[in-house]
Specification:
Layout lengths: L12 H6 L3 H15 L6 H15 L2 H4 L11 H16 L5 H10 L2 H23 L11
């Protein structure tokens, strides 16, 4: 059960909670759209990362969207997924050598997108966990 009432703005329970503050709602949704689509990293890789992050970030709504598929085995994807897994364990204390390893295989643009996506997705999932958006809610993105 969601801890706050939902607003009329938005299509999902998550969006309807953000809808209580329209400037945040519109800005958040815009950034979400930019980060989730194909960019320097593919949408499908980012969706896999979202699923991995959801398993530990406490949002039942996010977990209900599916388990990781474990279908990404190329080097670049493995590094990105590995970064997400290291982040889940170490948070902001990621050792410099992890970023150095990313630099060996990813461009600066890709690294920035990877880190931004990881942190933004974690923020969304923590928001859902704090306000107890549950699996019984609508499962739209």
């Amino acid at each position: 059960m969601v801890l706050l009432s939902t607003s009329s703005l938005g299509d999902t329970p998550f969006q309807q909670l953000l809808g209580h503050n329209p400037p945040i709602y519109y800005s958040w949704n815009n950034l979400s759209h930019v980060l989730s689509k194909d960019g320097k990293l593919s949408h499908s890789l980012k969706e896999e990362m979202r699923r991995i992050l959801a398993q530990q970030n406490g949002c039942q709504y996010c977990k209900a969207k599916g388990l990781p598929t474990n279908q990404f085995t190329d080097d670049k994807s493995a590094l990105c997924i590995g970064f997400a897994e290291v982040y889940l364990k170490m948070k902001e204390k990621i050792p410099y050598y992890i970023v150095e390893k990313l630099k060996e295989h990813l461009t600066d643009d890709e690294i920035i997108e990877l880190i931004t996506f990881t942190l933004f997705t974690t923020a969304q999932q923590h928001f859902g966990a704090i306000l107890q958006i549950g699996a019984e809610n609508d499962h739209k993105a």
